Amino acid sequence: MRILNDLRKIFVQYLNENLFTQSPKELYEPNNYFLNIGGKRMRPVLVLLGSHLYNKRYEDVLPAAMAIEYFHNFSLIHDDIMDAAPLRRGQATIHEKYNSNTAILSGDALLVYAYKFLSLIPQENLKTILEIFSDTAIEVCEGQQLDMNFETQASVTEDEYIWMIRQKTSVVLAAAIKIGSLIGGASNEDAESLFQYALNLGIAFQIQDDILDCYGNIELVGKQPGGDIIQNKKTLLLIRALNHCQDAGDKTLIDIMNKKYSNSSEKIKDVLNIYEKYQIKNSVEQSKQSYIDKAIAHLDAILLEKEKKDILFQLTEYLVKRDY
Q: 269: part of which helix (H) or strand (E)?
């Protein structure tokens, strides 16, 4: 999608122009390292896109895009510590490359600098944007805590899972495009419709990731499928399968989850057989589509010319209609 690539280039140039040069280097060097290990930059791109729909003055919106990118990376750095994750985007995480104390402090600095960049946006937008940004940051923390709760929680309902991914993942995408649109000159009504569009799109995006983790082609997805299955991660697929098994009095899936496998590929195969038995993939794909439909419905309320709305339809295709 050409417009997204153009906006990504604009943001990456701004990011490179604002890399940390301060002292002590032990605090700031890890952040430069982490910010430069890649990623699609989807969240800052959505800030720019929100503004682009109404006004092409990127100078006004770039600081907000940077704030969103800093916050997102702050949350990733801390998530990696909590998950003891050795890799992020194929590279060593900060706590692995440096140490945990450095990762905590460097992440904290990113969060503070996010607010410093927010202070650079047009003053007429500042109070509203600060409220949106702060509410979003709190919701992401709530979502992360819920995700950790699910690791030890005996059962998780589908509603609980959807709420968790809304808070942890989707709300940042929604806030990004809303913030950009408000700075670009959108009405409050349009900005809220864009928020709801991206919120539902983000939920569909995460459900799609759940599906891809089980069924994705390694060359397309970039990782070996089945990681969630190996970890007994409570995704929508597993939650729905457990419900079907319970209704049928079938304890096979519970036995598989509790079994110690010497070969993880065998566990993946056994779980996928259960998913096939109860048609879980098709069922979850229907749920994904329902959130795509909700997202698109919110576009109808937005007062934009067809050319601009077409960009959002293309974004929908780009994010949630990927091949397996």
A: helix 264-277
Is residue 229 within 8 A of residue 214, CB to CB? The reply is: yes
Residue 67 has pLDDT above 70, yes or no: yes
Give me the DSSP letters along 151-162.
Answer: HH-S---HHHHH
CA angle 112, 162, 216 (to 5 degrees): 95
Q: Which residue has the tokens 């996010």?
A: 114
Would you state the CATH architecture of domain 188-324?
A: Orthogonal Bundle (1.10)
- CB of 209 within 8 A of CB of 276? no
CB 45, CB 10: distance < 8 Å = no
Q: Which amino acid, one-letter code, is at 210?
A: D
In the chain, what are the domain boundaries? 1-186, 188-324
User: How many angstroms separate the Cα of 211 from the Cα of each of 113, 160, 240, 259?
Assistant: 36, 18, 13, 23
Residues in CB range of 81: below 8 A, 6 or more apart: 93, 95, 100, 103, 104
For 276, the token pair is: 């096939």
131-144: per-residue pLDDT in tens? 999 999 999 999 99
- Residue 109 to residue 71: CA distance in whole angstroms: 10
CATH number of 1-186: 1.10.600.10
Q: Give 162-190 pLDDT, tens digit per residue.
A: 999 999 999 999 999 999 999 999 999 99
Give all strands (DSSP E) within the chain, no chain letters. Answer: 87-88, 91-92
**Contact yes or no for 243/317 (Cβ under 8 A):** no
Residue 261 in tokens: 């496998």
- Which distant-in-sequence residues (6+ apart) come within 8 Å of 19 by Cβ? 32, 35, 36
Say whether pLDDT at 324 is over 60. Answer: no
pLDDT at 302 over 70: yes
* Residues belonging to the chain: 324
